[in-house]
Structures are given as C-alpha cells and as structure tokens.
Amino acid sequence: MKQINNILLITKEFQSDFQKNVGGTGVFYKNLAESLADREINVLVFGSAKKPFDIQKKYLSVHFVKDYFKKYFLMELLRSVTGKISFLEKFHYKIYDLEAEYLKKELSKFTANKNIDVIETHDWEGISRIAEDLKIPYIIRCHGSWSVLSRFFGYGAAKGKIYCEKKAFDNAENIITVSQSNEKMVREIFGNKDYNLIYNGIDTGLYKPPQNPETISKSIFFVGNVSTEKGADTALDAFIKVHEKENEATLHFIGKETELSEQLKRKIAENQLENNVIFYGKKNPDEVVKLLSKAEVIVFPSRGETFGLALIEAMALEKPVVCANLEVFSEIVSDGINGLIASESEFSEKVLELFSDRNKAMHLSTNARNTVVEKFSLKKMTDETLSYYQKINS
After folding, report:
1. Residue 276: phi, psi to the nearest 5?
2. CA–CA distance, 151 with 280 (Å, rounded to integer)
C-alpha cells in the first residue's frame, strides 16, 4: 500500500485556544490530528469559524478562514429570510452554493503546492462538497448529519443544510460510519455506498482512573448538554426517586445548559432538592475527568445517539454506567457485564442496585475500562483510519 505522508482534514470545528466551545466533532478532529502528527505524518486542517485563526506546530498546520455568513452579513440575512418562504427555496439553496464556492477558493489557496494524499471531512452541512474539485481521494466520516438528526432524533434542521448534505453524499464514494446503528441510519437516508465501520476512540491515557479516587458517596453524574435529547429530564426524575430512599444522594450535571435547565430547576425547587443537585456547566476535558472521577454512578439516559463518546470516556475512568436502551449503546455496553442498560422508568432502580451492591459496581467498572482499552482506544481508531486511507489511496 502507498505510504500516507500528507493528510487534509476539512472541518468547521477544531478544539483549540481559538475554538474552545466546540462539540464532539471539534474534539474528535483535534485528537485525530494530534495522533496522526505524533506519527510524523503531515496534517493540514482547513475550516471556517466566526474569527479566522492559524496554528503552526511540527507536522500540524491549521488554517481557519472567516465564516462566509459572518463575513457577508447580507447573505446571513437572506439565508434566514429565504429559508422561511417556500417559493424562495431555490434561492435559499443558491446561498449555500455560494458559501461552498467561497470555501473552495479559500481551500485552493491553502492547499496550493501541497502534495495531499487523502482528505477527510465530516458529514454535517455537506462540507465535503468543497473537496470534490481537488481530484484527491476523500472520505466523509459520519459524526451526525443534520439529515440523520432530523429524521431519527427530531432535531430541527435548516433546509439548506439538508440540501448540502444530499449533494455531498450523492458525489461521495468513501464513507466512514462510527457504529453499526449509525450505518443503518445513514444508509436509509443516503443509500448504498462504500461504508467502512471505524468506532470512535479516546485517549485512554487521559481518561483513566486516578490513583487515589475521592468518590462522592451516593453521587449520580450526568454528562452532556442539559437537554431533552440527552435525557436530562429522565436523569432528574430518576434522581428524585433515588433520593426518596437515599437521603444523601446527589445529582451532578456536567454540560451546557439549555432552555430545559430552567424547567428542571423549578422541579428541583418544588421537591426541595436545591442542595442536592449541582449544575457545573460546560467544562474542558481535564475538568470533566476530575469531576467524573468523583462519581459513584454515571447515567446516560439519551434518547438518540450516533455513537457514545461521553459513554466510553466514563467507562474508561472505571466507573459503573447506566445507559438508555439504545441500539448504539448496546454495541458498547453488555448489560450486567460492563454496565447496565435501562428503560426510562428503570434508571432509579438500576442506580439503587449499584449503590447497594459495591462488588457488582466494581466488577462492572473493571470490565468497562477493559472494554474501552481493547475496542475504543485512540490508537486503535488511528490505526484503522490510516489503513482505510491507504486502501482508498492505493
């Protein structure tokens, strides 16, 4: 197979000092880029953000241009207006085409005289469209497109973004899916392609149990956006039931607060639980590790996922987890072996079970850590990614 020396990643999110408040995609591409650079592979990263920025390190070059709609305020206004009027739909889509043309030109400048072997992009917003003219093999990795989130999880999505994703997948040949469940959803929307499953991986050196853990007794931790989609309401309802039997129990929310937060806080006040429920807000990875290391149990009552990055992070910390009965979670958690799976109504009894049976909790925790090290490490994911790059480049 051909040696891969130069890789281009195209993404609208890249976690850094310039883009701190990013989602899972931004964290993923930061980790992947650094993992590849550690192997002395040249990694170029191109994207757009509210403010342009550049990062230069050994084997890593990041170049973000100003977001099209932040640069041209009139187009932002027109995008908003045309997206609400059905007979202006074609003009609405044209605005997204103009954004793609802008990014193509900026990408062409950045990649000039660079001998790129392979390109990777994310699926959402169809950003791979800007790579099509480069005549270089490219891959779309399915982190969670608006098309998938809209159809299967009920998220609102702009018509223009759905349009871009359809155009992107129409022309794409190489697709990475991050779970079997993810592939089923993507296949249903975009049809048959050359799908290749590579589970997401995490740095098991960062996410590892501390040597002298100081666990908060009877503590339940929730990590993720405090939203209905992530099941924050289910977490609180379960906690209220747990607290009736365990007065010392506490609930800890780690993640960005949403409009649901105020509803939850009213319910907390009604039940006089203000001293038992803590909202930490969004935290950086190091802070998340420190907080989760204090958990006795971590819950994942999400109503829909394409993978479960936060889940494997918690498992890598050697914590007992209780997760929703989702198809994708069952690819990670084997009920009663390395975690527990629960329906919405079962979360409280599963948590109480772990509180009362420490031997079982320790057994699940040990197996949880082992599962992640064996199946979901950053090293394994990087190895498989490089093999796929070589395959499509041969």
Report:
1. -110, -5
2. 31
User: CA 121, CA 383: separation in Å to the nearest integer?
Assistant: 18
Helix then strand count (H, E) for the chain reads 14, 14
- Tell which phi-psi region holds residue 382, choosing left (phi > 0), alpha (psi between -120 and 50) or beta: alpha
Residue 139 one-letter amino acid: I
**Could you tell me the residue ranges of all domains in the chain?**
6-201+378-393, 219-375
User: Which CATH number applies to 6-201+378-393: 3.80.30.20, 3.40.50.1820, 3.40.50.2000, 3.30.1380.10?
Assistant: 3.40.50.2000
Backbone dihedral region of 218: left (phi > 0), alpha (psi from -120 to 50 degrees) or beta?
Answer: left
Contact residues for 109 (Cβ-Cβ < 8 A; gap 6+)? none
> In the predicted model, is pLDDT for residue 1 greater than 70?
no
Domain 219-375 has CATH 3.90.45.10: no
Q: What is the DSSP string of 183-201?
A: HHHHHHHH---EEEE----
pLDDT tens per residue, range 63-101: 999 999 999 999 999 999 999 998 999 999 999 999 999
Distance (Å, whole) CA 36 – CA 32:
6
Amino acid occupying residue 382: T
